[in-house]
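Re: the pair you flagged

First of the two:
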Amino acid sequence: MRRSEIRDHLLETALRLFNQHGYTATGVDLIIAEAGVAKTTLYRHFDTKEDLILAALERQDEQARDAMRVFVEQRASDPVGRLLATFDCLEAWFRDARFRGCPFVSAAGEHKDTANPVFRAAALHKRLTLAYFEELAHAARFAEPKRIAAEINVLHEGATAVAQMTRTTEPARQARRMAAQLLAAEGQIVEPSSPASSTRREDARQRAQASRS
């Protein structure tokens, strides 16, 4: 294999093992055994195990965010629909037999010092994901896109934590229903054009304003 192919192979092997066993429990010897390379080959690409973890998290971040964006854009054409489609993306992830919970939460949990490079890499992924939700909320012209994005993010994180324990897809559907209620309260759910639906949207908007006053 070429040098770039070996590096990719090492990263994919490390990602799989970190997901299965955790970052601390997965030793370098196991990674090189599974990858079928010499220890010197691994250290030719990564100076330390921490460097390997950071590179793996960077790869995971790119793959996860790109996959969600592609999935969402294929599912819905409007920003509100895309916010809801992010939960459909969660459901597909929870259905994957390899799902073991959020790898970034796991990385942060095993590297608890907020100054630790691994913790910072995990936190960066969370900030970038939140920024994507805010991007969709801005496009949907919500009055408070940062708040909407933060609430959508909390639903994502909660659903992922519950799914890790239950190993079911239902938390994604529950979170989607909660998100739909949240967005409806903002008057942004598209409904058939009729006097009744307009009244329902106006009632929902007034209730939301009253609850925040």
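Second of the two:
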Amino acid sequence: MNLHIQSTDRTPEIVLTSQPLHLSIKGESYPEDVAAFYGHVIQAMSELPTASNQDLTAELAMVYINSSSIKAFYRIFENLDLYRQAGHQVQITWKAPEDDDIMQELGEDFKDRFPDLNFKIEQHG
């Protein structure tokens, strides 16, 4: 289940590890084909309830996300919520630059949309 996608100018680095169960997404996201880029990630996330029984931590540190990518993130969060509903602990940390109101507000939007997920927002310099 381990997944590692290197970052590019248009896409974030994505790392999913099984030992420990951890998801990391960092960078910018405006791929030409959002469905193709995030397809593997969404598929892997949808398989988690049958593939793992560990607690999951996720760390997201985005610089920029286009609207199409935001839809893919909703799918990822939906799968994280399904994993939580299957009886697992899920801890999400959304990291936003302290001077970036847009990324902070986007984190708040995700937190509001998925109120049952353990979601914290951190600011960094």
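Residues 67-85 form the longest helix (19 residues).

-B.
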